[in-house]
Design a protein that fits this description.
The complex is a heterodimer. Chain A is α+β, with helices and mostly antiparallel strands. Chain A is built from four helices and 16 strands. In chain A, the strands form three sheets. In chain A, strands 1-12-11-13-9-10 form a six-stranded antiparallel sheet. Chain A has a five-stranded antiparallel sheet with strand order 2-16-3-14-15, covered by helices on one side. Chain A has a five-stranded antiparallel sheet with strand order 5-4-8-6-7, with no helix packed on it. The chains are: A alpha+beta, B mainly alpha. The interface between A and B is medium-sized, with 17 and 15 residues.
Chain lengths: 260, 174
């Protein structure tokens, strides 16, 4: 409305120089552009909680069981577990699908030990929506996301979790995802950024696969993996997001040495 | 997780919206949760059971193959449930098809419901659609279906009559 008034004034009341009219038109276009694009970019930021980790400098680990060999299940239990080791949990998120006994579904490597082997079978459900994939961190703290079929255990791998489907494959959205799909759920996933940092993301509200994958694509990720949906929980106190419940298998955690 | 999901359904489904049931249906499909694990909901309060039946229909609309796999279990279970819930099977067969191992029982139930004065017209219409599909596979059903359609013709709405007349012509031409 304000812009419209300027236009009326410029054409009826004042005779402005041509350059000024052009500037005003440019301003009008810019304003319209802002109105058109701001809500969308805001809404995706409002909709998704993301956390970037530098695996080279931060202590990123995958957890499953406590010292007694019992599944941790919840972020609260993980928090207590790391605190017993004099560490502070700065980030946590469920890290893959799991069976009824809370054991990881598919490959799980913890501290270089393969605790659950690679699953290359076919089946129903998201895990088997091929291509599925693996998020792993090598011995020299380099993070990767790759398709299950491209995975090679020849490298020294410190941590790995298998899940499915892949969200992005070499920069392309998984071919099974449909734009505008009504298949909505709370979802979380992991992607590798161009600077080789890891980005974990969880939707705060229900989202379809396509939009979720698109989010990772917008960050510049080439490969991204879906971790889970419905059960998704994130602990990220620096963004005032502290979900400490949960009932799942593998949990991804980032810790700092606790200040005494 | 599945226990959590069951609890969520149990506590919220009775007052749930269609949109929410769609989200749950997606979760069941995506996680490949067996309906057997959730079947306790059909033995609960009527409002919980009836809304869960709607949710099952939603699964059939979104992913007929997922529902088709579950149908033999649901048919077996229906004998131990409120008899009124049997009519939901007609909708499930309408969305997902009839599993080959259930065709005999399904045909009996469909004719029974089609001829019953207690069945409402929308269920009868679905019965006819499912029977028509089965009649394509088993042409010997056509005559029985024709007899039923003649019988039902004048007992319901004008729209129903229009539809049955059209179907009778189709069946007659085959």
């Amino acid at each position: 409305m304000c812009v419209f008034r300027v236009h009326v004034i410029s054409s009826k009341t004042f005779i402005l120089p041509r350059t000024k009219i052009i500037s005003l038109r440019l301003l009008l276009l810019l304003a319209l552009g802002l109105i058109a694009f701001t809500p969308n970019s805001r809404s995706i930021d409002d909709q998704i909680l993301a956390y970037t980790v530098d695996a080279k400098t931060q202590d990123l680990q995958l957890y499953w069981k406590n010292e007694k060999g019992e599944p941790l299940k919840s972020i609260q239990n993980l928090k207590a577990y790391v605190e017993r080791k004099n560490l502070t949990l700065t980030f946590a998120m469920n890290g893959g699908m799991f069976n009824k006994d809370f054991s990881p579904q598919g490959l799980f490597i913890q501290n270089k030990k393969t605790l659950v082997v690679l699953d290359t079978a076919s089946g129903n459900g998201n895990f088997y929506l091929k291509p599925n994939g693996i998020f792993y961190v090598t011995d020299d703290n380099l993070p990767y996301v790759c398709k299950t079929t491209d995975f090679s255990q020849h490298r020294k791998i410190k941590f790995a979790t298998q899940s499915g489907p892949m969200l992005l494959i070499d920069g392309q959205i998984h071919p099974a995802f449909k734009e505008g799909s009504a298949n909505l759920n709370i979802r979380n996933g992991v992607g590798i950024l161009p600077d080789n940092k890891v980005v974990f993301a969880m939707s705060k509200t229900e989202i379809n696969f396509y939009d979720f994958a698109k989010y990772f694509q917008s960050l510049g990720c080439k490969n991204a993996l879906y971790l889970d949906g419905f059960v998704s929980r994130t602990y990220l106190p620096e963004k005032q997001w502290t979900q400490t419940d949960g009932n799942f298998g593998v949990i991804i955690g980032v810790t700092n040495k606790a200040n005494k | 997780m599945r226990t959590d999901f069951y609890r969520e359904l149990e506590s919220q489904i009775a007052t749930s919206s269609g949109e929410k049931r769609k989200i749950w249906a997606n979760t069941i499909i995506e996680k490949d949760i067996s309906l057997k694990e959730l079947s306790g909901l059909l033995k609960g309060e009527h409002k919980i059971a009836s809304h869960f039946l709607w949710l099952i229909s939603e699964i059939g609309i979104l992913n007929p193959n997922k529902l088709l796999i579950e149908l033999p279990f649901l048919l077996d279970l229906s004998d131990s449930l409120n008899p009124a819930y049997k009519t939901s099977l007609v909708s499930f067969w309408h969305y997902a098809g009839v599993p080959p191992e259930n065709e005999g029982k399904a045909i009996d139930l469909l004719f029974q419901l089609l001829q019953s004065a207690d069945t409402n017209v929308s269920i009868k219409t679905r019965c006819i659609w499912v029977l028509l599909k089965l009649a394509k596979k088993y042409p010997e059903l056509k005559n029985e279906l024709k007899v039923c359609l003649y019988d039902q013709n004048d007992k319901h709405t004008k729209d129903f009559k229009k539809r049955t007349v059209k179907l009778l012509l189709e069946l007659g031409n085959d």
